[in-house]
Amino acid sequence: MGLHLLDIYRSPNIGVYMKANDRHLLVPKGLASTKSDKLSELLEVSAVPTSIGESRLLGPLVCMNGNGILVSRLAEGEEISEISAATGLNVSKLDSKFTSVGNLVAANDKRAIVSPILDGRAVSQVRDVLGTEVEQAPIGEYYQVGSLVVATNKGAAVYPGLDEAEVTRLGGLLGVDAYPTSVNRGVPYVASGVVANSKNAVVGSQTTGPELVFITRALSV
Questions:
Q1: I need a labelling partner for 217 at 20 to 30 A (CA). Which of 4, 38, 174, 190 fits?
Q2: Is the pLDDT assigned to residue 48 strictly greater than 80?
Q3: Quick check: pTM over 0.85?
């Protein structure tokens, strides 16, 4: 287990480009093979090159766990087929007017927190595709729960502007211990700079020493 520093496309905002579970890492098509191989090694997963709606911004457009994958309605049929064939998981478009499913759902393999702006049909779809218990809740005053939480089966790194009671509540919803932290020198949207699974985590190179300590504690890596 470990926490590693790495940028892609000369950007520390690596979570904007990738999404991982315990077996696979979705990476943008065209990412250098040296970088893709390094990420696979660090996270102990297989890399799956793909796009969503021909975009390389996979983080906001995908929510995945070990049971299934939800993608933005912008995804094309060929892209869904490629991801399903490579991972062996059910891949479905989220039936919602909102396209950034990755910003609206935070999940591990057992539980998910879903943004309050999603309707009942979308919430049911999250439950069915990800195979999790689902709780619909904001985080503080924000509805972008997927961008404010990085959850694995071992822990959760959450938005740093929460009080202790709210952090404890989020940990309870996800069934793991949670810990508040920022990433990349104070960025509160932790998912923008962290790609993690239950084994390891990778963060952007601008992440400070104290942030590394907090993220290590949050994700138990």
A1: 38
A2: yes
A3: yes
